[in-house]
């Protein structure tokens, strides 16, 4: 063991003999807390979820191995497919917010005075408790005396029960999802915009290109890596949507809840309300697979639209 | 006006004609209205009575700015104990993340050791796994250690993250090696170099990590929901969700609760905007 230590002590800076250099033992001390935490609280729980997905785990007592039973039950479960569809629909709606964020980020970048104020205002939902956001929007969406129906009535549009009516629930959540995510997207896209060399705009300006042309020919291509990053993050976050549905539907409206569960809500319900942890674990594994496929698909697609200059 | 335009875009004052910024402001102001109207509506509702709220069409302005909703909220909800739980859990998580991630990040960036790359690869893999995949095992651990409904149970998993270690490693990698070598020539040991040379230089990244961890901890609902089954030691999100079950349609009280529980973090954000933006820009927010 001493050998190992001396060997690696010498390795890093051979050119400076006589100077003490960090060695393997100090590396161990530095890394131990993070590694113990990672193994005990992440690696082991992950493996335990994987194992449990092949087991029947009663609330009390020992688990029994059941092979792929949980998965076959899951694939035959109409609730699961509904949840998958709901999560996918919610994700697609949230993605519609990205073009909006790109345009707004470009506009904010054009503004001198007031830029900081805009950023703060767009960011407010990010620092507000999601539970609080759910409560406020549930009130705004209220079918009887909600603000949305009132505003729509000015334009002669009939009011709806946006949350309680399963035809609208996921769309109503999606709108809130866009609203909540805008602040984060604007910050990431803003950082991307600042990395675009100003000289490009000067040169094209001299050549007579207007702002709209510059947006499509300079900003969009050079920003595409940031847009790609924002898309990846948004999809991952949207597929994990839980808080809104928990706060806006649970104990409020049961018919809409059965129709509007997302994957993560279904997971929570099975694993921690009904305590079918084996079944819950299988849902979690499927969620992981869905996220992996969605991410891989985006990396495949990026080749056709992301521009690395 | 021309002067302010010049200040706006130094070096290229000729590019922007002052008259053309107003359409941009117009679009942005309309968008901002969409962002803030829900908050304004929430605040107006807080001062209304239940009767006013359920009127059709709704009254925009409260008739007499009643503070009744706050009274109901504070008299039925143990706000301060929930606040203490939220703040305590946040403090533990942030402190844990900073210490653990800075130490490991430094080692991964600067101290070559056997198996280092494999171990770091393991961190990266865990970084990409969604948090729900850990919940069942983490819950089992907490339950077996009989720690359900305790503050440590709320905080401990969040004190460690592959993300934090990754972020700190990247930060240390970009730092020039000269300072370390100079300190080492002066006889400083590994820990002294880390503490007196590297940590001060990593302060902006540590701030970003703290802010992200704090934001995530404050907003987190699912984990506290799972490990606080009895309702003791509830943090604010869980308590607020419970309020909804209790006061179903008493919207002024619900809005007051939502406002009071959100305000602490909003105030911190207004004070530390730069750190929040830097944190988000450096990483994105991992759900």
Automatic annotation (TrEMBL), chain B:
UniProt cross-references to Pfam families, sorted A to Z: BPD_transp_1
Primary localisation category: membrane
SUPFAM superfamilies registered for this protein in UniProt: MetI-like
Keywords noted in UniProt: Cell membrane, Membrane, Transmembrane, Transmembrane helix, Transport
Subcellular localization, as worded in the UniProt entry: Cell membrane
ABC transmembrane type-1 domain sequence ranges: 83-272
Transmembrane segment boundaries: 21-44, 79-106, 118-139, 151-172, 193-218, 253-272
Record's keyword annotation contains Transmembrane helix: yes
One example of a Gene Ontology biological process annotation: transmembrane transport
Recorded superkingdom: Bacteria
Membrane topology annotation: Multi-pass membrane protein
UniProt-listed InterPro entries: MetI-like, MetI-like_sf
Family: Belongs to the binding-protein-dependent transport system permease family.
Name of this chain's protein: Sugar ABC transporter permease
Originating species: Planotetraspora thailandica
